[in-house]
Amino acid sequence: MNENQNPFSGRVLVVALEGWTDAGASASSAASYLRERLQCEQLIAIDDQDFFDYSRQRPLIVLDEHGERDFAWPSIELWGPSNQPGISNSNLSLYFLIGQEPALQWQYLRDEILELVEDREITSVIMLGSLASETPHTRPIRIYKNSQTASVRNFYGIERSNYDGRAGFLSVLGHAFEKAGLPTISIWAQVPHYVASMPSPKATLALVNDLEIMLSFNVDHKPLLDSAFEWERSVDDFVEGDEDLQNYITGLEKARDESEAEELNTDQLALEFEKFLRQNEGENGANES
């Protein structure tokens, strides 16, 4: 692959699973929102009881249009382009792997998913996640990217992950995709930890925006924008009567603003240095002539 070519084009799989790596349900909601907006169709559903622990991942009772009872079992689903794809980038075909993080038999499920990816001739993979972090709800959601693929790191100017510790199924899948030779990137949204147990549409919107920029397509944002605005107002109301929490958030805001100011100063110094080098090269060229 040409080092100047975007590694995420063609058939791209977006993976987002509910559970340990999905604070505020942000990543799974982002994938589901895009899947609906892009009019994808379900290709495969994996609901084998060997992969799920029903005492922890309980099935849901659902009623059909006639009021008859049925059950929705925990599953992982693969979605892909329909006959009428809703994507604006003709060079891109988006697939989505969504559902609940499995509880059992991870290695067997990993291999099964790898076979599905190979059968669909997927060319690259994006892993979406969200984590609870010490960040204020009043500031823009921060997005972090990392990759174990050298070509991806070079193209986006990002680092590889040096995390060493407990892993989720998302990491297991990402490692398997890497070993299979697929360019893979992880994109994480930071969710304020004091409201991480409730859905965070502001973080969902941030992930959707980042994917749009990265993959050069666009969808309608209005429902997410409205939800994100209502979410921020509801969190404001939640903390209003708690002085200790208000003071804590004020401290987070100050730390965030100082951090961004320091980053801005560092970026400005880099620009000044580049300007100096260009000017110096011009003077040297004039002297040599």
Please give the radius of gyration in angstroms.
22 Å
Mean pLDDT across every amino acid position: 89
**SSE succession:** EHEEEEEHEEHHEHHH
Helical content class = 40-55%
The CATH topology of the largest domain corresponds to Rossmann fold
Based on secondary structure, the structural category is alpha/beta
Tally of separate helices: 7
| Broad shape | globular
Q: How many beta strands in the DSSP annotation?
A: 9
Major sheet attributes? 7 strands, mixed
Strand order of the largest sheet: 2-5-6-1-7-9-8
First-residue to last-residue Cα separation: 40 Å
Which segments are poorly predicted (pLDDT under 50) over 5 or more consecutive residues? Answer: none
Write a short abstract of this structure:
With 289 residues, the chain is an alpha/beta fold. Helices cover 43% and strands 21% of the residues. A hairpin with a 5-residue loop joins strand 3 (60-63) and strand 4.
